[in-house]
Amino acid sequence: MKKSIILSVGLAACMATGTYAAENNNFNYKVDRFADIEVLRYRVNDFEKLSLQQKQLVYHLTEAAAYGRDILTDQNGKYNLAIRSTLEEIYKNYKGDRSTDDFNGFVTYLKQVWFANGIHHHYSTDKFTPRFSSKFFADEVAKLPQATIAAIGYANAAQLVETLSPVIFDPTVMPKRVNQDDGHDLILTSACNYYDGVNQSEVETFYNAMKQPNDPTPISYGLNSRLVKRDGKIYEEVYKVGGKYSAAIEKIVENLRKASAFAENDKQLAHINKLIEYYETGNLRTFDEYSIMWTEDVVSTVDFINGFIENYGDPLGYKGAWESIVNFKNVEASHRTEVISNSAQWFEANSPVDARFKKENVKGVTAKVITAAILAGDSYPSTPIGINLPNANWIRASHGSKSVTIENITEAYDKAAQGNGFNAEFVIDSETSDLMDKYLFIVDNMHTDLHECLGHGSGKLLPGVSEDALKEHGSTLEEARADLFALYYLADAKMIELGLLDNADAYKAEYYKYILNGLMTQLMRIEPGKNIEEAHMRNRQLIAAWAYEHGKKDNVIEMVKRDGKTFIKINDYNALRNLFGSLLAEIQRIKSEGDYAAGKALVEQYAVKVDPDLHREVLDRYARLDIAPYKGFVNPVYSLKKDDNGQVVDVTLDYTEGYIDQMLRYSRDYSPLTAGK
Ligand code: ZN
Predict the structure, then answer these.
(1) For 28-74, what is each residue's pLDDT tens digit?
(2) Cα 586 to middle of ligand 1, angstroms
(3) How confident is the model at residue 11, as a pLDDT?
(4) How far is the CA of 455 from the centre of ligand 1 (A)?
(5) At residue 668, does pLDDT exceed 70?
(6) What are phi and psi of 629, to 5 degrees?
(7) 83-94 burial code (b ≥16 CB/10 A, e <16)
(8) Helix, strand, coil % in the chain, rounded to nearest 5
(9) Between the chain's N and C termini, which has fewer beta carbons within 10 Å?
(10) Is the confidence at residue 405, as pLDDT, over 90?
(11) pTM to 2 decimals?
C-alpha cells in the first residue's frame, strides 16, 4: 500500500540541486533495452565511506536479499520457475542461427520473464505474448539433456512441452496475474500463486472467520502463506523454515545470521534476530513485533527490508510478495526529510481536511533519504523510489512508520532521461519547460518525501471504521490521499519558510508534470483498448481528471490543440492548488468514514476509462521518441576482499555486469527452489 513508484517516464531535468558529484557524469547508467523496458544501473554513492563493519553488514544483507528471488517468481505463478529454468537452459544450450526471428523473439521473451519475475507483465499483469513459435520451443526443449529436464521437474521433454507450452503460448490460459475486474471471481481469474483450489468466497470466509471483532492489534491475516484446498480441506501453507519455500528461507536466515555479527548496535541486532525468529516460526505476531522493533530503530545507518511485504500481487490484498532492499542513510539529503517530519504536526493541523478526521498527535513519522545497495524480489528489477512501512495500520498509529526516498534510484532515472526529447514533445511552452528543467528533480523528490513521510501517515479513521472498508478501491484512494497531501503542500509558503525551496513558483513544475502525466503521458503504458487498472496510475488519473473537470468553469486547466497535437495548459495554478485541497478533504472523508460507495464512484468516474483518441495520439507521439515506458535496474556485484590470512579487509563493488549475465548468475548461484517444488 505504501509505495511510490516513479511518477512519470522520461522527464528530463537538469541537476540544479548540487547533490551529486561531478564524477557521476562518467557513470554508465544504461544497460539494456528490449520490448517496453529499459534496464539501467544505479550507483551506490558513498559506499566507500562506510566503515568496514558497515560494509560487511551490507554485504551479508545483500546475500540474504539475493536468495529470495525464486520465492517471488513462484508467488507470481506456479509455472514460472519451471518456465524460467527451461528458457535459460535453451538459451545456454542453443547452437543454431542467432539472427532468426524465432531466436530474437525468444531472447526478448526470456528478458521479459526475468524482468517480470514471471510470465506476466510486472505492471499491467497481462500475460506476455511470445514473439517466437511454439515449434521453436518444442524443438529446443527436445535438444536438452534428459538430466536437465528431470531437474526442472518433468519426466521427459514431451511432458514438459505438453505442460508448459499452453501456459506460454495460449493467450486464454492464465491470461492475467492479478485480476481486479469487478463481477468475476477474482481468485479464480488471477494467475498468481497465492491460492490453489479455492475460490474468492472461500478465501473471504476463511479469513473473515479468523478476524477478531474490535481487535486493536490485528495480525496481517494470510500475509505469509499460500491458501490451498486439498481433499476438501482448506489450509495455509506457511512460508517459513520447514514450511513452504523452506530451502530459500533457510538461505535467507543463514545470511541474516552472518549479517547480525556486524550489527551496528543492539537495537539493530535485536530486530535482525527477531526477523530470523519470524522466518523460523512463520508466526505473524512475531512479524508484528519485528516490525515495531524495526520501525523504532532510527539510529542505524545501514537498514533493510526483507520479507513478505506488499500485497498488490493478491487481488484480495492478503498475501505479501517477498522483497528486499538493503540501504544506508544519505545523511546530507536526509536533512530535507528531517525538516519535513519535524513539522509533521503543523502539516496535519493545517491541512484542508475536516478536523474530525485529523490526528491530534502525529506519531513518529521518521523520514530519511537513502542510498539503495541492492534491490531484490518484488523490488527488482523494477523498483519503487519511496517506501513507507510497516503496512499494519495499528502499528503505524501507535509506533509510527519509517519513510524513505531512494535518491540514488531517482538520480539514475533522471540521468538516464536527459536529452530524450520528452519536454520538447509534450510540454506546452519554453517557460514551463525551463521551470521543469530547473526544479523538477528537487520538487519531484520532495513530492515523494511529502507523500511518504506525511501523506500516508496523515488522518485517522473514525471509530469502528474498518481498515479495508474501501475494499478493491482502497489502494487507489490511499495513493490519491498521499499524493494530494503532497501536492497541496508543495505550493505552501511553509516550504519556503522551512528553507526547502527557494522559489515560490518551483511547485508549478510538479503541478504541470502531474497533470500532464495524469491526463496524458502515463497512457503510454496502456495498450490500446484497455482500461487503467494499476492503483498508482488510477490514482493519478483520478486526481488529474477530477481537477480538470471541476476547474472547467474557471478554465483552470485547458487542453489546447496545436498542429493536431494536444497540450496541457494550466491557466491558474493557485486555483489548481485549491482543487487539490478540496479533493484531499473529500478523499480523507471517504477513508475516515469508510464510505465505500463514494470511493467507488470517484474511481469509476475518473480513474479507469481512457479516451481512445487521446490515447492513440500519446502512443504515436511516444513511439517517435522511442522512450521505454518502464525501467528497472541491475544491481552492482559485491565482493569480499581478503588479505593473505583470509581476513576481510574491504568490500568492493563492480558495476560492469550486464543484464543477461546478472540474471543467469542469480539463477545459477541464488536459486534454492528447484522448479515444481
Ligand atoms: Zn504511496
Answers:
(1) 999 999 999 999 999 999 999 999 999 999 999 999 999 999 999 99
(2) 18
(3) 34
(4) 8
(5) yes
(6) -65, -30
(7) bbbbbbbbbeee
(8) 50, 15, 35
(9) C
(10) no
(11) 0.85
456 CA from centroid of ligand 1 (Å): 7
Measured distance between the N- and C-terminal CA atoms of the chain, rounded to whole angstroms: 30
- d(CA 55, CA 65) in angstroms, rounded, equals 15
Residue 121 Cα to ligand 1 middle (Å):
21
Q: How far is the CA of 536 from the centre of ligand 1 (A)?
A: 8
Report the separation in Å between the CA atom of 513 and the middle of ligand 1, taken as the mean of its atom positions: 18
Give the tens place of pLDDT for each residue, 122-158: 999 999 999 999 999 999 999 999 999 999 999 999 9
Residue 309 CA, ligand 1 centroid: distance in Å: 14
- Please state the three-class secondary structure of 349-360 as a single string: HCCCCCHHHCCC
* Residue 549 C-alpha from the chain's centroid: 30
Half-sphere exposure of 36 (CA within 13 A, CB side): 18
C-alpha cell at 138: 518444442
The continuous run of DSSP H or E covering 234 comes out as strand 233-238
> Which of 67, 9, 563, 433 is closest to 279 using CA atoms?
67
Q: Among 395, 357, 418, 362, which residue's Cα sits nearest to residue 595?
A: 357
Backbone phi, then psi, for 610, in 5-degree steps?
-120, 135
What is the C-alpha separation between 289 and 653, in angstroms, rounded?
A: 34
Is the bond preceding 381 in cis, omega lying within 30 degrees of 0? yes
Task: Report the run of H or E that residue 519 belongs to, with start and end.
Answer: helix 507-519
Q: Which residues surround ligand 1, an ion (CB under 5 A)?
A: 4, 479, 482
Measured distance CA(8)–CA(629) in Å, rounded: 9
* Cell 547508467 -> residue: 29
Say how many Å lie between the CA of residue 537 and the centre of ligand 1. Answer: 11
39 forms beta bridges with 32, 632
Sequence-distant (≥ 6) Cβ neighbours of residue 300 within 8 angstroms = 264, 265, 267, 268
- Return mean pLDDT, the chain: 93
Backbone angles phi, psi at 481, to 5 degrees: -60, -45
- Separation of 546 CA from ligand 1 center, angstroms? 19
- Omega before 216 within 30 of 0, i.e. cis: no
| Residue 59 amino acid letter | Y
Give pLDDT tens digits for 608-663. Answer: 999 999 999 999 999 999 889 899 999 999 999 999 999 999 999 999 999 999 99
* CA–CA separation, 298 and 529 (whole Å): 47
Q: What is the pLDDT of residue 9?
A: 37
Query: CA angle at residue 524 from 519 to 527, to 5 degrees?
Result: 115
CA of 348 to the centre of ligand 1 (A): 17
Strand order in the sheet with 195-196: 195-196, 225-230, 233-238
Rounded to the nearest angstrom, the distance between the alpha carbon of 335 and the centre of ligand 1 is 21
Cα–Cα distance, 122 to 486 (Å, whole number): 26
Q: Confirm if 162 and 149 have CB atoms less than 8 A apart.
A: no
